[in-house]
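Progress against Task 2.4 (sequence-to-structure conversion) is shown through the following example record, which the project officer requested during the mid-term review.
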Amino acid sequence: MEASLKLLNQYVKVDDFSAQEIADQLTSIGHEVEGMHVFARGDKLVVGYVKEKVPHPDSDHLNVCQVEVGNGVVQQIVCGAPNVDAGQKVIVALPGCDLGEGFKIKEAKIRGVESNGMICSIAELGIDQRLLREEDKAGIHVLDADAPVGEDALKYMGYDDTILDIGLTPNRADCMAMIALAYEVGALLKRDVHVPEMKTLNELDSDIEVDVQTNLCPCFGAKLVKGVQTKESPEWLRTFLMASGIKPINNIVDISNFVMLETGQPIHMYDYDKLKEKRFVIKTGFHQRTVLLDGKEYEILPEDIIVSTDQGIGCVAGVMGGDDTKIDENTVNIVIEAATFHGATLRNTARRLNLLTDASQHYIKGAIDTANTARVLNRCAALLEELADAKEIYKSVLTDYEVKEKVITLTTSRVNGLLGTNISTEIIEEILTSLHFSYTREGETLTIKVPTYRNDMTMDADVIEEIARMYGYNHIPSSLPLMEMTKGALTPVQSYVRMIRHLLTDLGLHEVMTYTLTSPSMVDDFNLFHHQDAVALMLPIGEERSVTRKSLIPSLLQAINFNRAHSQKDVMIYEISHTYSKETEIQNLAIACSGMYHHVAWQQLQQKADFYLLKGFVETIFEKLGIKESRYTLKPVEANQQDFHPGRSGYIMMGNDIVGVIGEIHPRQAKKYDVKDVYVAELNLSVLLNLKKPAIKFTEIPQYPSVTRDIALVMDKDIPVHDVVRSICKVGQRLIVDTQIFDIYEGEHVASGQKSVAIALTFQDATKTLDDTTINTMIEQILKVVEKDYGAHLRV
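Structure tokens generated for the chain above:
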């Protein structure tokens, strides 16, 4: 926000302080002044009088002027401006004047004629060029005839001003109004604030009607003013607007901008004579294209708030007016609008239309004092009467609006308890009075009524913050908070996740971090755990990052594709992250391997990534998590599975629930992601890490030796060996301590459609040495079970 100190001085006296002092004081109460600059440059600028002008003897566009610059001193100045003439009061830069950026005026000869100074245009004073009219740039600036010769030109014009660039915090949007900022400065300096009074106007009955048909407009006010004259604004108004970063247009537009600058309330004006029906309807539901004040056509959507006139669009509320009702040079009768609209809705409209105007920013940031609407309309009408020669002013038409009084109760002990101070009740009263907060007191209890423009005040802590600001943060002693000592520790789930990270890293995998957002074309690929729709962003940067992912595998495949494109063919990666769908969030672990996992050329050792490598990773993780083999099974994926290769992939099941998957990706998906020979695994950690795990029991090292026996079983080739081994372990769980499959054979001496599986069984009893009889009996029991359950028999 840019704040002119000369404009601020209209409401609270600050001209006896330097700009730096005011900046430091404002920063001390939380309004950080991020920078400051002078409105106009020039240190030796005076009002001059052109006594004589004659053509330059050696030029067809230069003139030689005799200019009085004060105390009877006349300087000869060569000037090339087309509008310079004798009898004018002008701005003169004397020799030695520094206009900034290395431009210093010197005595010189121009085409042989002596020139002692320069007659200036406003554009040469360092004012932002965007704020100037074309005539200000094309020629010199002519001052009023009563301008005193020899006086400081900037001071006479009101250009001796400093602009503060204040970084307002989001909760203090009210200070976008100069009056609200003046209240802050007045409280800071303990000075009175002078607010323009409600002027008594001779008002007539109005024929305007207002109909609000949406709850997105709490208050709407309209005021008819007739007989205005459109002309250039007086110099003081133009100067204040330019100093505040607003370009002057004409007196009508400038008055509306000045009132917004002063009160924070945006003003819109309609040409009364262009309205067939003198009725304003505020509603939503329009869906059409319309031309606005800037002459461009925009699409209006049903959710946009519209001020409708003559069944059409008179104004996109709070954003920009319609072209059909605009004020022009022929306007004599106008309707002033001052209203409050829903900020969030306006923000969506303004951003979509790319029309983030000054007015819309006031609504969006909540800078509106709705209770002040009637005063704003009165102020606007009074200025139209003063500066636009308004002939007739009509009564304001306002919708019913109940001002809700904010009352906050506060105690001195609460203030000091929160701030760690010892501020007296009397000092608190002084601060509240300086901020124009009315209150009543009973003992140390204060019942406070918050001013209507302070939309940020909702609870006692907000008032305490105001007390702290005005008391002075530098007066609040620094102290350490008193609190119980706590020991930082990881939750069980966090500990497991950290253990898995270390484990996989030790196994030679690299952790990656990929985007949580993905494209709709990939969001359902490899999804096993989410059964609801994906979560879509309201305003995505692009379609490729528009929805949250349901599986980590597509992201890892993209990473493998990237590495292969950069000649890195051996990729072993994993990621632990969250996946999302509507109302569901799951923590996943995904592993993806492609290429050579282990390769030692001089020993001729190599191991490519395959199904069994990934299965080993998963089994190792389960073992570390304390999940026994008996708690899960591996089930082949469906024959029509589109993401995983049938016959080379399996689901990890717990009961009837899928908690993970291991396998090779389907050739169709390999083609889609432009990868090949990729094996993946994905686990639902939200389930696995929250399983109830058996307590760890200590077992002594056995004192008695173990015995190993090998058996070879012949069975149908489609029978999962894993199931057979589990049945064996179940039968011999008391004595069998380990099983190892060391051979699977199909071919000669084995019937067609069958296979021979060789298994090494390790027996051990913690209480005695096993004899052959016990072991043989156990093997006979095992053979009976596998024959009954699987039709398997001992190979002979």
